[in-house]
Amino acid sequence: MSGLSRAARFVWLLPRNVCIGILIVYRRIISPLYGDVCRYYPSCSAYTLQAIQQHGVLKGCFLGARRILRCHPWAAGGIDDVPTRAVQRYRVTRFGFVSTMGQGKG
């Protein structure tokens, strides 16, 4: 994506950032109503958020759905981190959204 303009990179990351925005709103408004019920750390919503930030919408939603299916009352639980990418192409802003690593001006 090195040849893409800033606008094209924004459009490319837009679906990922929309999903991130939805999850941020869920985690701030709805999740506190349920309390601490997840058997895993990080919680299922935090796991899905990190998965989408690192892997994109399709793989991140797949990883999140797989995690939610594993989270049930009979699960052992424990620490379950998102698998990391070998190469990080994007950075996460302080608000949780994804942006480019600053690859030139476009």
From TrEMBL:
<keyword id="KW-1003">Cell membrane</keyword>
<dbReference type="InterPro" id="IPR002696">
    <property type="entry name" value="Membr_insert_effic_factor_YidD"/>
</dbReference>
<comment type="function">
    <text>Could be involved in insertion of integral membrane proteins into the membrane.</text>
</comment>
<dbReference type="Pfam" id="PF01809">
    <property type="entry name" value="YidD"/>
</dbReference>
<dbReference type="GO" id="GO:0005886">
    <property type="term" value="C:plasma membrane"/>
</dbReference>
<keyword id="KW-0472">Membrane</keyword>
<protein>
    <recommendedName>
        <fullName>Putative membrane protein insertion efficiency factor</fullName>
    </recommendedName>
</protein>
<comment type="similarity">
    <text>Belongs to the UPF0161 family.</text>
</comment>
